Structure formats: structure tokens, C-alpha cells
Amino acid sequence: MDKIFRFLTTGLIVVVLVACSSTDDQENQMPADSSLTHQKDSMRTNIEQEVPVPNWFENVPQKDGFIYAVGTARSIRGEIAQRKATMQARIQLAEKYSALQNPAHTESGGASANELNVQLPIHEVKEIEKYKSDKFWQVYVLLEMQTAK
Q1: Whether 136 contacts 75, CB under 8 Å
Q2: Where are the alpha helices (DSSP H) in 32-144?
């Protein structure tokens, strides 16, 4: 009986140790989200050699009557990376739209990202590119919103 108890206790300890240990240190070292102002530079340095950067991300389109915004994110799960990239682009789009609606507010320093309160009109995903490198997905999103009809 004593041997069975020791065997079960040892087995339980081994199971706990294996379950608590990390199988891949890279998984625990995922880079934090970059701020919007440094978004392009920081993401380029983190993944420069892993995946290509779309031309429209580097050179955001400009067209009269439209506002464009870009976002990018990296995650182990593709759908999470896409949601994060889209959210970054929407924040950027809201900042641009807010500046267009209230030019005087922008000249006086504008609102910080925490103070931004804008209801965006209809906008669409114009481009989306997804790349998988090792275990991570890198997603780039381009949003377009018409400002004049």
C-alpha cells in the first residue's frame, strides 16, 4: 500500500511539473502592442525579416473625399491579429475623422487616444493581408471611409 501511495504521489508531482513548465519560451515573449505613433517602425523592426510589409501600409493612399487608415498586429491566432489590426486602424480613422470634423480642436492640441469619442460613419476594409511566420500571424489592414458624397 505504501508503494502505491508513493507511486501515485510521484506521478502527480511529475504531471504538475510538466503542466506548469513552458514548452516554448518564444510563446511567452510576444511583443507588446506598439503605440499608433510608432506602429509602423516598431512592427517593421520586429518582423522585418519574417514577412513582407504591404506597399499600401508604408504609403497610405490619398484620394479626395476619402480618409484612409492602417493597422497591424501580431498574434499566435490569426483572428486575434486581424481584430487587433482592425481596431488600430479604426482608432486611427477616428482620429483623422475627428480632426476633419473639429479642426480648431486639433490645432489646440487635440484629444488624447483615451479621450477620443467619435461615432464613425460607414467605412470598409479596403485591403487585408495575412502572413504566417513560425507560430505567429502578422496582419495588415487598410480601412477606407468616404467623407464627401
Answers
A1: yes
A2: 39-47, 55-58, 78-101, 103-107
Give the side-chain half-sphere CA count within 13 A for 31: 17
Comparing 88 with 114, which gets the higher pLDDT? 88
Count the neighbouring beta carbons within 10 Å of the beta carbon of residue 34. 18
Q: How far apart are CA 127 and CA 135, in angstroms?
A: 23
- Spell out the residues 6+ positions from residue 65 whose beta carbon is closer than 8 angstroms to its own: 146, 147, 148, 149
| 38-85 pLDDT, tens digit each | 444 444 444 444 678 999 999 999 999 999 999 999 999 999 999 999
Q: Which runs of consecutive H residues, i.e. helices, occur in the chain?
A: 2-20, 39-47, 55-58, 78-101, 103-107
